[in-house]
């Protein structure tokens, strides 16, 4: 899963979302993160975007709970890095799983330099997916407001996959889950279905009016900064 998140395959059920997310993360990082500067991936999991960032000579370091990440997040939601250590903070599909938004956003603003940037993605619309917990979905305006209330100003919002494509991908996810439980042919059948449904969702994206997509996305990716003191 680590490899396919950054470089998804068309037979993956979330290919359409992940390929655009990876493309936008690469573009935003290339345009707004200085080479050799520190980026902290806050809630990094298995660090699927580490290689992508390191290819741009970014000093990428993953942080998470437990002992598997290079940087440990403690019970209070903090790392042991000093204040203002990071030129960039990365948060990819983490926010919906965070119980305490105040603590999480406080660590983002603590870590960021005054001119640092935050690249954060989270769901607008998607299935319940506890890993291990799942708390929220956002509208565009709700996400901007919730971050602003916690000291973070959003400069840019990217909408990834609109409502027509999202509906198709949700159906695909459900059907593929069922197919993979079938013996022998289940995996191949699920992959074949994924190709068909991903292509359908791609077509639906092309016919979706941009404003409809902007306000009703499956995933929102924001570029943001901490508010001036």
Describe the structure.
With 229 residues, the chain is α/β, with parallel strands linked by helices. It is 41% helix and 21% strand. The chain has a single domain, classed as Rossmann fold (3-Layer(aba) Sandwich), CATH 3.40.50.150. The chain has a seven-stranded mixed β-sheet, with helices on both faces. The longest helix is centred in the C-terminal third of the chain and has 22 residues, at 186-207. The chain starts with a helix and ends with a strand. The model has no long low-confidence stretch (mean pLDDT 96).
Overall shape: it is globular
Mean pLDDT: 96
Number of domains: 1
Question: How is the biggest beta sheet arranged?
Answer: 7 strands, mixed
Strand adjacency order, main sheet: 3-2-1-4-5-7-6
Find the CATH superfamily.
Vaccinia Virus protein VP39
- Write down the CATH topology: Rossmann fold
Q: Helix count, per DSSP?
A: 8
Q: Quick one: CATH class?
A: Alpha Beta
* Classification by helices and strands: alpha/beta
What is the CA–CA distance across the termini? Answer: 40 Å
């Amino acid at each position: 899963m680590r490899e396919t998140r950054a470089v998804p395959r068309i037979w993956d059920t979330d290919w359409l979302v992940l390929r655009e997310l990876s493309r936008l993360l690469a573009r935003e990082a290339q345009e707004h993160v200085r080479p050799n500067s520190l980026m902290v991936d806050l809630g990094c999991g298995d660090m699927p975007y580490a290689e992508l960032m390191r290819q741009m000579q970014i000093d990428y370091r993953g942080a998470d709970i437990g002992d598997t990440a290079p940087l440990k997040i403690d019970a209070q939601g903090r790392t042991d890095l000093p204040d203002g250590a990071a030129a960039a903070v990365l948060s990819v599909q983490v926010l919906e799983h965070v119980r305490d938004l105040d603590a999480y956003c406080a660590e983002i603003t603590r870590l960021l330099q005054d001119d640092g940037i935050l690249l954060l993605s989270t769901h607008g619309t998607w299935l319940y997916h506890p890993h291990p917990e799942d708390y929220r979905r956002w509208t565009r305006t709700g996400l901007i407001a919730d971050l602003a209330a916690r000291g973070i100003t959003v400069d840019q919002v990217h909408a990834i996959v609109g409502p027509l494509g999202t509906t198709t991908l949700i159906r695909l996810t459900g059907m593929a889950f069922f197919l993979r439980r079938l013996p022998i042919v289940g995996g191949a059948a699920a992959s074949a279905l994924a190709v068909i449904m991903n292509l359908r969702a791609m077509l639906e994206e092309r016919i979706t009016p941009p404003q409809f997509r902007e306000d009703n996305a499956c995933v929102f990716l924001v570029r943001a900064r901490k508010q001036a003191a």
